[in-house]
Amino acid sequence: MTAYLVPLIAVGSLISCGVYLLLERSLIRMLLGLLLISNGINLLIIDAGGPPGNPPVLGHGSDARPTTADPLAQAMVLTAIVITMGIAAFVLALAYRSYRLHTAEQVGDDPEDLRVSQLSDPEARAIDADGPEPTSADDADQPDELDALPRRPQ
């Protein structure tokens, strides 16, 4: 099997740009990173599928191409495209919901992660040994607070 250099460079550049975008704080850039990585992987699957050949249907071949094309790579890429579109729709819905709740699409720092990162090593080991801290009932979010649309007065 011969692998051509140009598609492999395209795969590498798509995946590296996708990883760069995936590390951003913006949900839309994360979505674009996922889409670039998915397209890079799809191109890699098609490139690894082998050389082009006759269609995998009996009686529809030509003598110019001695082999039959592998239909598995094409079927896998079509399935991956459908899955990617489902993931893209889900991330877009998350971004829309985040924008409606916070009027920003940036992913913020988690306060608990910040608190734990500021602990010294002995304090962190003591917390790990004791288990998680008990939570109070005042900390729980009420469903009304999570609703993006304001309630109408009744």
Description:
The chain has a domain at 5-52 and 70-103: Helix Hairpins (Orthogonal Bundle), CATH 1.10.287. 60% of the residues lie in helices and 0% in strands. It contains 6 helices and no strands. Helix 2 (27-48) packs antiparallel against helix 3 (71-102).
Quick description:
With 154 residues, the protein is an all-alpha fold. Helix content is 60%, strand content 0%. The chain is built from six helices and no strands.
Key attributes of the depicted protein:
Helix Hairpins, 0% strand
List the helices and strands and how they pair.
Elements: H1 5-22, H2 27-48, H3 71-102, H4 111-117, H5 121-130, H6 143-146
Helix pairs in contact: 1-2, 2-3
Membrane topology: Multi-pass membrane protein
Organism: Mycobacterium simiae
Keywords: Cell membrane, Membrane, Transmembrane, Transmembrane helix
Overall pLDDT, averaged? 79
The helix count comes to 6
Kindly estimate the percentage of residues that lie in beta strands according to DSSP. under 5%
What is the general shape?
A: elongated
